[in-house]
Design a protein that fits this description.
alpha+beta; 5-stranded antiparallel sheet
Length: 161
């Protein structure tokens, strides 16, 4: 009887070890979850750029209109831009079905929006570039004004220093 108890104990220990090994290896095949670590916003003329820095490179895909999906990121963020932007009132990111949706509440018409690579404070990052309609006075001023460098924290197009 004592022999049966030892064998049962060994079988249970082996089964527990096997279950632990399977559970430990299971995440290796799963896609890593990304976390949103930083958002950097820069504005120059009629262009607003939003750099998204994730724990692993953010995968950003266009959604409806000028919305964008951050695949594999569950984040919630609401940034009031009204005091620092001439182009947008607010930027929001809300979780939705295994991703997050980025939306912008624009003050002017957005002519185009697309994903570009840019340099952020933390290195290369994907950015969403929003191109707004310029007002006639802004167009004349922009053509005649000397080019100013963006503040150090603003995302820049890849290759531009």
């Amino acid at each position: 009887m004592r022999q049966a108890t030892k064998e049962t104990a060994r079988l249970l220990a082996a089964a527990a070890a096997a279950a632990f090994a399977v559970a430990a290896l299971a995440p290796l095949g799963a896609e890593p979850a990304r976390t949103l670590e930083d958002v950097q916003i820069g504005e120059r003329g009629a262009i607003l750029k939003v750099a998204l820095i994730c724990s692993a490179r953010c995968e950003i895909v266009p959604g409806d209109s000028v919305e964008f999906r951050l695949v594999g990121v569950a984040a919630r963020l609401d940034i009031d831009l009204s005091a620092r932007s001439a182009l947008a009132r607010r930027l929001t990111i809300t979780p939705s079905g295994g991703a997050s949706i980025l939306k912008i509440d624009a003050l002017a018409k957005i002519n185009a929006a697309h994903v570009v690579d840019c340099d952020s404070d933390s290195g290369p990052a994907p950015c969403i570039e929003f191109r707004f309609e310029q007002q006639p006075a802004e167009t004349a001023l922009a053509e005649n004004a000397p080019r100013q460098e963006a503040p150090p924290s603003a995302p820049k197009p890849r290759g531009e220093k």
